[in-house]
Amino acid sequence: MKKRPFVLLALALVLIGASVNAQDYKPGKNEITLGYGAFTGVEMANALFSIWPALGMTIGKDTLKDYNCSFYGLGDLEYLRWVNPWLRVGASLSVNPVSTLITTKSGRELTWNYYFITVMPRIDFVYFSKGIFSMYSGLQAGASLILWSDRQGSATINDSGLSAAFHLNAFGMRLGKEIGAYMEWGYGFRGTFNIGISGKF
Questions:
Q1: Is the pTM of this model over 0.70?
Q2: Which of 4, 31, 86, 96 is most buried, by CB atoms within 10 Å?
């Protein structure tokens, strides 16, 4: 019998605590984004270094017929957690296909195709936020799984590997409340220019 008042008191304290926490909770602490990034560092490096085999063919007296490097961009999914009004942390998962095709007038053909599957933790510093508009900058660092397929004539080589990955977001802005759109400019594995939609919950 003596335990009953104690149990009721403990239950009342738990309910009061839950009620206070519910009143203190502010929606928008979590954020999910879905975006597209253009002109990634990986694509630009591929275009730059692909010049050398093309030059090698030309020096070897085999005239180039076609030289094409892809700039498909990447798809990106992110989770972000607002720590406080000026800081958010999270992680991104992105997939970036990259391909190169070199053909010559004599019929030689070289192709290589890469898939960069990248996971990077993220930290953002929000330096302006008013109403539905905010501006921020941030850093990311992580790893990328590389799946590639190289073809020279009838021979095809498939392999995989890991690479360090990074991204510097020099400037980003978001417009909207619970549902919004964002644009970012930076350099690295997520692209020079990024756009997307986001939802806070």
A1: yes
A2: 96
